[in-house]
Write a structure and sequence with these properties.
Length: 294
């Protein structure tokens, strides 16, 4: 059983390496190609169960690696935690059927979660971070208020593409910069990535996963761990997602206080509505000659 130090004293992750132990992210398989038997490399997809105080909370299909970051990012996105200080400790182990991450909250955070008196159910897969919730109201999580805004979540920022300098960004260069760190994609072509870029256009972090929402959770969880010393999560950073801009990607970005969201794929109607309501600049089709700005 692998244990992680207390959430009060986290070990900072190293980009491109799993935080805990040795993980298998790719697998070689025998295939037929052009009538001949050969080998190919595929991305590993395996279940991770997230528990809260020993009780099952969610199961997601993910690419192993950075599982602690994935779990913490998921808890933040779902409104279960607001900061790393809400977490007492966590423990990660690999069982026969998959990984298990057990997170214990401090009493105040646990009471806050219990007071919601809502029996929420999470059954996620690698394709959809919102699928499986039993009720419509379970889809919506109040964004975290930005510092100094008195808890008014809808005033996260008076952002615009222009005010953030995104109207002059070479998104093709951003995509290339993130691609340079996508080692699993380079081998398999079968994973998504989420990257964070600062206001200077520097790529600060990249995480990969078979699920685009998992990749974002890993990025957010990484930033949440870093928040202990910097006092912020993704504030001042733009999220780049290699997938489409779906509702859940926008919601995760809002919960992490991202400055903007840029996606290589298209945007959905609910994503656009939520981004506008939350004041999150949204750029879709960023890899094309004419990105679409919402």
């Amino acid at each position: 059983m692998a244990e992680r130090p207390s959430g009060r004293h986290p070990v900072r992750p190293v980009l491109g390496r799993p935080v805990l132990g040795r993980t298998v992210q790719v697998r070689t398989v025998q295939v037929q190609r052009a009538g001949a038997s050969t080998q190919d490399v595929v991305a590993v997809e395996a279940p991770l169960e997230i528990r809260l105080g020993g009780r099952p909370l969610a199961v997601t299909l993910r690419t192993p690696g950075h599982d602690v970051e994935l779990g913490l990012g998921f808890l933040l996105a779902e409104g279960i935690v607001e900061e790393l200080g809400d977490v007492e400790r966590w423990q990660l182990e690999e069982q026969e059927l998959g990984g298990v991450l057990d997170v214990e909250l401090i009493p105040q955070a646990l009471d806050r979660w219990a007071r919601r008196k809502v029996e929420r159910e999470f059954r996620t897969n690698s394709a959809c971070g919102a699928c499986g919730k039993p009720r419509l109201q379970d889809l919506f999580v109040e964004p975290r208020a930005a510092a100094g805004q008195g808890g008014n979540a809808k005033k996260i920022a008076e952002n615009s593409v222009e005010s953030n300098g995104l109207d002059h960004v070479d998104f093709g260069a951003w995509i290339a910069s993130a691609r340079d760190q996508q080692t699993v994609f380079e081998q398999t072509g079968g994973v998504h990535a989420a990257a964070a870029f600062d206001r200077g256009g520097v790529c600060r972090a990249v995480f990969e996963d078979v699920g685009r929402h998992n990749a974002v959770d890993k990025l957010v969880g990484h930033a949440l761990i870093e928040e202990r010393s910097s006092g912020k999560i993704l504030d001042g950073w733009t999220v780049l997602s290699t997938g489409r801009a779906g509702f859940e990607i926008v919601q995760k970005s809002l919960r992490a206080r991202a400055t903007a969201l840029v996606t290589i794929g298209a945007a959905t109607s609910m994503a656009v509505d939520l981004a506008i309501e939350g004041g999150l600049p949204l750029v879709a089709f960023s890899g094309s000659q004419n990105p679409v700005v919402f």
